[in-house]
Structures are given as structure tokens and as C-alpha cells.
Task: structure prediction
Amino acid sequence: MASEQTHSGNPKVDIEYRKKKSAEEMRYQIVSFSMMIFLTLVAFIAVGYGDFSAWFIVPFILLLAIVQVVFQLYYFMHMSHKGHEAPALFLYSGLLVGLITILTFMTIIWW
Amino acid sequence: MSTYAQKKGFGATVWDYLTTVDHKKIAILYLIAGGLFFVLGGLEAMFIRIQLAVPNNDFVSAGLYNEILTMHGTTMIFLAAMPLLFAFMNAIMPLQIGARDVAFPFVNALGFWLFFFGGIFLNLSWFLGGAPDAGWTSYASLSMASEGHGIDFYALGLQISGAGTLMGGINFLVTIINMRAPGMTYMRMPLFTWSTFVASALILFAFPPLTVGLFLLIFDRMFGSNFFDVANGGNTVIWEHLFWIFGHPEVYILVLPAFGIFSEIFATFSRKRLFGYSSMVFATVLIGFLGFMVWAHHMFTTGLGPIANAIFAVATMAIAVPTGIKIFNWLFTMWGGSIKFTTPMLYAVAFIPSFVGGGVTGVMLASAAADYQYHDSYFVVAHFHYVIVGGVVFGLLAATHFYWPKMFGTMLNETLGKITFWLFLIGFHLTFFIQHFLGLMGMPRRIFTFLPNQGLDAGNLISTVGAFFMAIATLILLYNIVVTSVKNEKVGNDPWEDGRTLEWAIPSPPPFYNFKQLPLVRGLDPLWIEKMEGKKTMTPAEPLGDIHMPNNSFTPFMISLGLFVAAFGALYREDYHWGVMVLIAGLGITLLSMFVRSVKDDHGFHIHKEDLLNDDDKGGKA
Ligand code: HEM
Ligand SMILES: [Cu+2]
Result:
């Protein structure tokens, strides 16, 4: 990204804008990164604490995992930015295929 | 430094192809390798038909028959049909969207070599103790019980070549999304490009389930796990699901590009815009989508229960709707057109009734209750050969004639082409039409012989005679190719004279950079639009400038070779003490090659503007 500025006809404006953008971007990354570490700790504690039943722990950890995936995709892999429509389309299609597979396996192989 | 015009020695040419990253040369590699496997699979088919020509035949033994049958199906689907389609996708799709290459030329080469080594590995099983013998579907209950290493060759070979296919698919997707020429919007893309796009998306989603299934099989057979071992709590039906979640989309991966090829041919030789372009695009995407919802129609008799069977039956029948839309659009394209019956057009016209035949039996099979009668009988064999030969193979043969001039700069002989067509058409219907009735009369599928006087004798003999017609047709096609190549009469940009899309605006074969200047696309069928305004070439969309090109590389070959070696290690790990070493050594070669690729900077090179200017004889103008 940064190298693009040098090719631009009007570097000054670009750099100003970029700097602000990057700073903002950086803040998001740090926040989500600390959130991810925190969530991981929570997951470990949930298991390590020992007093919760498996019926609570398993769905809870899965939920945390989903949140982590969202962070990963939207903050670290920039899915929230413009120009990511095609990757989003393919990710969600893949998700759909995967979910259908799980659904059929649950219903007609394992009940 | 226009070195590409020089004549090269034989060794240099071989080295050039071993290291090439040019999509047009990779296309030729796919064509040659796929063609060889097609001939091999064809030979296996002939052995099958010879064995079944008369009752109680002993041309081959029962065990060998199973191996031949398995290898025929596996080879034809994975090593012939798909690579041959990849050949045309590689050769034509980048030209159709006005690109200078695919998005990742290096990965393109890697995809080819993985496919090639996987295919070789699979076929070496013939010499190393026997080929796989559990059918191309390799159902776990059979394949877990199969002795020897045949199934291991199947699982490892397909794993390697499947990785190559997956890479190829992703590469095409990225190319189409990112590398379209100025003005080439999605809704201006030729249908062959559209169908390449949808087929690649299907590859992206369909191959991972196969990969998972194959890994489970590999672990069970070679590393002692119990996924499919019922005695230890495993379940063989899981394999069936995984295989068909891949397998049904796979049949659309095969047939959609063929649909695309025919769409181009119909429009070109009816000299008319394709009827209902947007509904064609819609139908292609819809077929791709529905293709994932229907896999259990291969498992109606497994005991899924009435609700599951009903859902999958209805979903399956729904696919007939978009397919029907396409059929009518092709018919309406011809309607009122000024039709030229060239060889590709003959295939296209013959494709319609042949494929509809396969579609009708498909809907019959999709009626779950009726399928209890048809399942695992020759009726199913007839069905899928009508769709695969009548659809895919006709499409490949049509494309061979249609795109040959673009790929090689010479025209295949039309008279020989038409002879091939008629022999193949007659042979095809002779072989497979009668099999519907053999099936209905009770002849089971995958049977190595049958008894006399049960009403099956005449039908089987007729079927075998038909197979010989197709074999002769193929030989004539090969003869045609040799004669054409020896004569080597070069043709111009637009040898069919009615080209509509971008590939016909540049020389045959195109220069290695394809387009000197990227063309400006002003609508669907861009070249046709220019022709209608009295121009012969496209309007350029950019000034003449330096062109950046990738360097050749031997690394893709080495990465694939490493996996090929490693596969032998995995296979013989339990038999010989050197197995583990070979496994490690092979993976080492692969990882080392990948490492070299990662650390070595390779920025490619530029073709300079001055050289492009001097290169007028080579054309390549947008
Ligand atoms: C209208 C569209 C189609 C329908 C409704 C349909 C339906 C079916 C059904 C229900 C079966 C399972 C039969 C059984 O095993 O009892 C089947 C098998 C098969 N179909 Fe289709 N089909 C359609 C199109 C296609 C196409 C386009 C292709 C390939 C280009 C294809 C290739 C196959 C193959 C290879 C098998 C046999 C697989 C095996 O058991 O080895 N079908 N089809
Ligand atoms: Cu199917």
C-alpha cells in the first residue's frame, strides 16, 4: 500500500490522507488483537476452571471462535474495505456449502 | 531482444516447455497430456467392450476387468476430460477477456505439473502390483477390502492431481475477476469465459470434500486410522457422501465449459448474437448453485429415508429447468441465422439431441422410487455416457477443431473432420443407446461377463461394434492432426471468418504477450461490433508501452516431482524400511523448492516499446 504513494502524481495530499487512514487502521488492529488475546484467555479459563458443564463450555467456545473468525476476516484481512466483494461472495458461498454438508451429516448419517 | 522469433533446437524446445509459465504453452501441455490419457482411457474402454462383446467371454479375467473398469472411469474423468477442458480454458479464456496471461502464471505451471505427476503415479500402478479395482467412486466398503496397493495409488495419485486442479481453478477465478480488459464488464464476457468462471468456482468448493475423503482413505489404509472401519465405530457411508458432494458438482465442472464452447460455436456459425445472453449467464450460475444441493441422488438406495430422498429428488429435477433454458436459447440462436455447417457446428448441432437424451434419463433417475429399479444397472451407464460423451466429449472434439487454428496457427482438415464427426456420432449412439434397454432388461453395472440366452447377447454385441466406430473416428482425428501439422499451412487472425470475440482479433497463434495494446471493449462480441463498423481490428485502450512479463521457471516441476516421490514413500512405508526415507526425501524436495521460490527474487522482464514497434509482422495489435 505504502509504495503506491510514490507512484502518485500528487504525493502530498495522498500521504496526509494515508497517514490518517493508517493510524486509524492501526488502532483497530491493536484493539481487535487485544480482544482476540482476551477471548483466547477466556476460552482457556472456561475449560480450566472446571466447574462449568460441557453443555455450557462447548457452545461457548464455539461462539468465541466465531467472533475470532470475524475479527480475523474483517480487521486483519481487510474484508471491511471496499473492493472485497468477490472474496466475500466466495467466502459466504463456501460457508453455505459447508453448512449444508454439516446439516446433512447431522440429519441423515448421525441423526 | 525479440529472441522468440528464432528457431530453437529440440532440446531447447523441451526445456522451454518444462519451464514455461505462458498460458498458451501450458494449454498445449494440457492438450498433449490430456490427449494421451484420453487415448489410454479409450484403450481401456475398448478392452471392456471386447470382453463384453459375447457372453461367457474370457478376454480378461474378472479381477483384471475390475482394474480396467476402474482405471477407465478414473482416467477419463480426472486425467482426460478435465485436463482437456483446462487446455482450452488456458488457451482461450485469457484471450477472450483481453488479458496478457492468467493472474498467477507460476501457479498455472505448478497446477499442470501436479496434475501430470499425479496422473503418471496413478497409471504406474499397472506395473507395480495392480491398478485400483473399486470403481472410479472407490466406495469405502470395497476399497478398504481391496488388497495390494491399487487403492493407495488411486488415493495418492488423485490427491496430487487434485491439488493441481484446485490451483488451476483458483487461478482462473482470480484472472477473470481481476484481469479483464477495459470495458470488459461481467455482462460482456463471452459465455466460454462465464462457464470457465462458474466451473472454477465449483472446483473451488467441490475439490476440498474430495481431498478430505481421500485423506481419510489414505489414513485408514496407510496409517491405521478407523474412519471407515465399521468394526471400530467408523462409517463407510461418510465416504459416499464426501465423494458425491464432490462428484455431482464434478459432472457440472465438466459439462459447463462444454456448454460454453457450444455457445461460442452456435453464435459464430449462425452468424448471430447468442440468443438470450443474460438468461444464459443466469442459467449457468443457477446450475452451478443447484449442483451442490443434489449429491444424494447418487445414494437413493443407500437407505437415507423417504424425506431425504424426496428432498434430493426434487432438488435434482429442478436442475432440468436452467438446463432447458439453455437448450432453447441455443435453438433460438440458430433460428433465422445464416448457418454454416463446419465441423465444430456439426458437433454442436448433434450435441443438442444427444445431451437432451441424457437429461431425460437423468430426470427419470431422479425419481427416487423409480431409481430403485435403475440403480446400478446399465441404464445408469447409458445415462452418464449420454451426458458425458454427448455433452463433454462432443464439446472437446468441437473445441479441438474450432480452436486448433488459434492454438497452432493451422486449420485441421475439414473433410477428415466431418468423417470423424459422423463415425463418432454413429458409434456413440450405437454403443450407448442400446445400453438403456440392456439396463432395463436387468443387466447390472460393473459386471465382467454375462450368460448367453438371457436376451443380452445382441445388445452387447451391437454396443461393442459401436465402440469400434468411435475408436476409428479417434484414429482419423489423430491422423488429421499429424497431416495438418506436417503441412503446416499458416492461417490469419480470424480463420473461420466469423469470429466474434477478442481471441479472433489477434494472430494465430498469438505472440507471447497476446495483446500489444490492451483492446477497448465496447460491448458483447467486441470484435463483431468493430467488424460491423467496417474495421478489422480492435481499438486500443492504452498507448503502446513496455510490457511486463514473468520469467520461465523450473521450480513448478520440482515441487510436483517432490510430491510424486513422497507418494511412493507413503505407499511403501509399511512394506520396506526405506519407505519413510523416501517419504521424507520427497517432501524435502518439495519444501526446498518452495523455499527457493520464496527467497529468490524474480521480477520478470520487460518487453520494450521499441521492440514492440519493430514487431509489426507479428501483429499482436489490439
Ligand atoms: C438433468 C440433469 C441430470 C439429472 C437429473 C441427473 C441425474 C442423475 C442421477 C439421479 C444419477 C444416479 C443414478 C444411479 O446411480 O442410480 C446420475 C448418475 C450420473 N450422472 Fe447424472 N444427471 C443429470 C445430468 C448429468 C450431467 C450433466 C452429467 C455429466 C456431465 C451427469 C453425470 C452422471 C454420472 C457420471 C453418473 C454416474 C455416477 C456413478 O455412479 O458412477 N449427469 N445422474
Ligand atoms: Cu449427480
Summary: The CA atoms of residues 34 and 72 of chain A lie 12 Å apart. The two ends of chain A are 50 Å apart (CA to CA).
